[in-house]
Amino acid sequence: MGRLARIAAGTSLALAAFVAQAYTETSGGYNLPTGVTDLSKEVHSLHMLIFWICVAIGTVVFGLMIYSIINHRRSKGHKPADFHESTTVEILWTAAPFLILIGMAIPAAGTLIKMEDTRNADMTVKITGYQWKWEYEYIGEDVKFFSTLAAESNAARQHDGNGLLSGAAWAKTFSKDELEKLKKVDGGNYLVNVDNELVLPVGKKVRFLVTSNDVIHAWWVPEIAVKKDAIPGYVNETWAKINTPGVYRGVCAELCGRDHGFMPIVVRALPEAEYQAWLAKQKGGEAAAAAPAAAAPVEVAAAATTATDAAPAAAPVEVAAAPAAAAPAAPAAAKDLSKDELMKKGEQVYTANCSACHQPTGKGLPPNFPSLVGSKIVKGAAVDHIKQTLNGKGMMPPFKHLSDLDVAAVVTYQRNSWGNSSGVVQPAAVAAAR
Ligand code: HEC
Ligand SMILES: [Cu+2]
C-alpha cells in the first residue's frame, strides 16, 4: 500500500469510529433510545446490529474504492481489467447481498411478529387523533379525556418576538435571551407538555387501538417503541408493556395540518397501586363533572365538523356545539319518532360513536370488530341489541352515557342499514332497558 492509500484507509477508519462513537447509547440523544420495554430494547439492538452491518459494508466498499482509485490510477500506467460476462462475479454480487439481507431479516421478523401480537392484553386504551390533540379512552373503565398542549407552552408559542406571552402572532427569530426564557417554560418542557397525561400501569400489557377523527396522525412514543398511524375509519392495534415507572414523551409523527407540531404526547407510567388510585379518582371526578347529556352531543358535533380547516383551537368547537346539539334531544326524547327522524339522527350517532370499530359500511373489521350486516344481535330481539349498546360487551365499550333518543336512533339505524331490516326502536324501549 502506498502512502496515500494508507492515509485514505486510516481516515475512513477514523471516520467510522467517530460515527460509531456518536451513535452509541451514551451519545447524548442522537441515537434511538434504548427505551423502557422489552420490545424497545429489542428494537434498539436490532437497530444497532443493522447499523454495524452498514458500517462494515461501508468501510469495505469505500476502502476498496479509494484503494483502487489511488493505486490503480492511470497516471501510474495501470490498464483497466476487462471481465465482461464473468459468471463468478455475477453470482458473487447476487449472492452476497442476498445473504446479507436474509441475515438481517431473520432477527427483524421475530421482533416484528412480537410487535403485532396484541393478544392477552391486560387492558385497552383507545387513542383518537384530532386536529390538534389526542383523546384517550380506557375501554371498559368509563374514563375518557382529551390531552392537549399544556397552557403555558401554548401561550409561550404565541410569542411575537417582543417578549414572551405578549400576543398571538407567529414567532419571529428569537434572541438568545428569549430562547433562554423559552427553555424554562413549562418546567423546561416547552412544547412537550400536555394538560392531561396518559397514565398507565407498569408491568401490564396495554393494548392500544389507534384511530383518528379527522386527518391522518401518528402516535409515537420512542421510549416505549410505539409508532402507529391514526387513520380515520381504521383502527390500528399495537401494544406496550412498560417496565420502569417514569414520564415518556412523544409527538404526532404525521404531518397533520397547521398545528401538527403542537400535539405532544406524555405517558406517565405508575406502579400498579398508584395507577389504580389515579383511575378511581378519574372515575369519581368524571361522574361529577360530565353530565351525561352534555358528553354525547359534543362528539356528534365534533364528528360532523369537516376535516379541512376545523376551528384552530379545540375549545370553540365544544362550546359552540353543546347547546346546539343538546336542544333538540331533550323535548324529543319522550314521544315516539318517525323512522326517518330516527334514521337521520342514528346516522350521526353511529358516525360519532360506532363507526371507528364497526366501520361506515357496517362491515366492521373482523375478527376483532364484528360485522353488523346480517348480525344475529341486529336481526334478533331489539332488547338485546339495546342492552349490548348500553352495556358493551368484551372489547366493545358501554354507551350508557348516550341519551335514550341517541341509543334508540343508533339501534334503529343499525337495524335498517346495509340491507338489515329489523324495525324501529323508540326511546321508551331504551328507557325500559336501562
Ligand atoms: C371500540 C370498538 C367498538 C365501538 C366503538 C363499538 N363497538 Fe359494537 N362491538 C365491538 C366488539 C368488539 C363487538 C363484539 C363483542 C363480543 O361479542 O364480544 C361488538 C359487537 C356489537 C354488536 C353485536 C354484533 C354481533 O353480531 O355480535 C352490536 C349490535 C354493536 N356492537 C353495536 C354497537 C353500537 C350501536 C355502537 C355505537 C353506539 C358500537 N357497537 C360501538 C366493538 C365496538
Ligand atoms: Cu397529528
From TrEMBL:
The keyword Electron transport applies. Its cofactor is Cu cation. Its main location: membrane. Binds a copper A center. GO terms for biological process: ATP synthesis coupled electron transport. It is a multi-pass membrane protein. Residues 24-119 form the Cytochrome oxidase subunit II transmembrane region profile domain. It is found in: Cell membrane; Membrane. GO terms for cellular component: plasma membrane. It is an enzyme of class 7 (translocase). InterPro entries: CcO_II, CcO_II-like_C, Copper_CuA, Cupredoxin, Cyt_c-like_dom, Cyt_c-like_dom_sf, Cyt_c_oxidase_su2, Cyt_c_oxidase_su2_TM_dom. SUPFAM superfamilies: Cupredoxins, Cytochrome c, Cytochrome c oxidase subunit II-like, transmembrane region. Belongs to the cytochrome c oxidase subunit 2 family. This is Cytochrome c oxidase subunit 2. It comes from Solimonas fluminis. The gene is coxB.
